[in-house]
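Researcher: Structure for this, please.
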Amino acid sequence: MRVLAIENYQDTPYGNVGRALETAGVEVVKIRAFEGEPVPASVDGYAGLVVFGGGQNALDDEGSPFLPRVCDLIRGFHQAERPVMGICLGSQLIARTFGGRNIIGRPIEFGWHDVTPTDAGRADPVFSALGDGAPLFHWHNDTFDLPPEAVHLATSRQTVNQGFRLGRSTYAFQFHFEAALPEVLDWSETFAGMIASDTPDWSERLPVEAERHAARADATGKALAEAWTRLLGA
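Model: Predicted structure, token format:
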């Protein structure tokens, strides 16, 4: 079984998602779209699609001309009823693909913040892994309105639309559930300058917030990744 993974930006960690796929024996075919690797036009040979995050916005076709092809690929997997996972930018691209309005340039939501399931989320085969809610990692300015026919699955205090599902198995996650503590620490070092421009006290907050939130966030992210991975064989 093979899954296609689209990398939209440098230093994309697969984290909980990669570990869940590896444990399940799923081969991951990686496309570094941001480096110019061609985005496949066909879903043939793949059981599912993962679209990761990125520093650009979901409407930046000029700066990232591969984005329309990623949207076409999302549509193709959805129409074929093969599971799709979009994280952060990936979730915004799912919204764009299916008619949701992309909202660009809001105040940043960064760090561990509670994600709470809706009633539909509590009953969903994937988002039910949130339980009554958990602190998950966030790093985004942009958001979206839900596309028509989307099922709203999760929310946070700052961002109403933290997750949704279209059809049986197209899932959008605004929050970074793939980022367990090792990935957060790596981001905090690799992108220290970028983070400091928006969240200048992060280096001081990080150890305190990690102690408070990381264990629960990591366990919840693992459960979410495993729940989506189980859809591949359904």
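Researcher: Any notable elements?
Model: The chain has a mean pLDDT of 97. The radius of gyration is 16 Å.
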